[in-house]
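Look over this record as teaching material.
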Amino acid sequence: MIRVTIHVLLLCNDYTAMDTALLMRNRLISNTGLLTNIISYGDPKFTSALWTDLYKLLGTKLSFSTTYHPKTDGLAEKMIQTLEEMISRLCAYGLEIKYSDGFTHDWCTLITVLKLVYKTSIHASTGKNPAMWEKGLKAKLPLLLDKVRHHANQSMNDAFEYAKQKLDKSHKAPEFKVGELILVSTLSVNNIKGQKKLKDSFAGPFIIKALHGKNAVQVQLSGELERKHPTFHLSLVKH
């Protein structure tokens, strides 16, 4: 996905599915249009009720052709974790901005600034910021928020660096050599005889014929897998 952006909505702990649906309709749908998918990071029952209530508020029935996924995907999960880390580090800085009339900004009122920082920051994968992909325009930023942007930028950079270090520690790619015997995950292989739930998680062993960069291997398949594509990502094989 080339264009990735975020929308941040603040909710209370006691919000119902209908309360959340109202907020989404008024603050999200009015800007983006209807959703084709909802990927839930939380309770699937709540998400299902939210999906239904949202369409009630829009005056239409839920279409059976519309997909509902009661689970998270990697991209959404990483973005949520990054936002959580940004908020945590913003709070750690103890950032408060007080005005002459007594109004004080805290993390809750500055959450939208974190969103602004994310959407106006250059992403390494695209060379542009999400705001540019979304609107085609360069976002203008208020000079009075320089202090806030500095802390928010620092929070985001710290969050990304923390996530990178954590990922590097827990996801060290195993080393494979040509001629070794390895097992291949059956998750990516269809049409294997027997009940899907009862089939083995891995098949093999098979001999490695070639290495494709640092992320994939080519194996000599046999038996039921003989006609399958012989190249697999490292996440789908093991010693």
Summary: The chain has three domains: 17-69, 74-170, 181-238.
